[in-house]
Amino acid sequence: TFVTTGSTPESVKVTATNIYWANYGGAKSIGRSDLNGGNVIANFITTASNPTGIAVNGSRLYWSNIDLGTIGRANLDGSDVNQSFITGTTRPESLVANNQYIYWSASTAGAVGRASIDGRSRGQSASGSPSARRSGASTPKDSATDSSICRAKRSLPASRSNNASTMLRAG
């Protein structure tokens, strides 16, 4: 065991100093630890709604709130939390961010969404009608994709266990 998360980790991202993970079910939060696995804060950012994806860009952390159809954002130190930075998405799951955009998979819409990293651009949904408000996010039918986007269909159990979960170190 490398880090005991206390919940069900769904996605993991690493920065130069920390490990971040999305706690799906149970705690419904974002966790954080040092790179060496110390200083674990299982509920670093609370009030998420079954977060499944997590992305890091510069000094910001982003996560998908699959049940609310939103993408949250905070500073890497946990300040300036906004659970609804991007709204109007359809079950956002995996996320990736670069210097210009944040992309997400919209599992039930069969689409990849995109919004400007500052949340100001407007876009269109997969059906061609306006979608994803606040940041002008979009789930375009034919969008440019980032090579690091991966969209995997999976079957999620009706309920997830609240038992403590662990991340294992590959040796």
Write structural notes for this entry.
There is one protein chain. By secondary structure, the chain is mainly β. It is 0% helix and 42% strand. The protein has no helices and 13 strands. Strands 2-3-4-5 form a 4-stranded antiparallel beta sheet, with no helix packed on it. β3 (18-24) and β4 (29-34) form a beta hairpin. The radius of gyration is 15 Å and the shape is globular. The protein starts with a strand and ends with a strand.
Describe the protein's topology:
Elements: E1 3-4, E2 8-14, E3 18-24, E4 29-34, E5 41-45, E6 51-57, E7 60-65, E8 70-75, E9 82-86, E10 92-97, E11 101-106, E12 111-116, E13 166-167
Antiparallel strand pairs: 1-13, 2-3, 3-4, 4-5, 6-7, 7-8, 8-9, 10-11, 11-12
Short synopsis of the structure:
With 171 residues, the chain is an all-beta fold.
Number of helices: 0
Write down the overall geometry.
globular
Name the strands of the widest sheet in spatial order: 2-3-4-5
End-to-end separation in angstroms reads 11 Å
User: Rg to the nearest angstrom?
Assistant: 15 Å
Beta-strand proportion: 35-45%
Mean pLDDT: 75
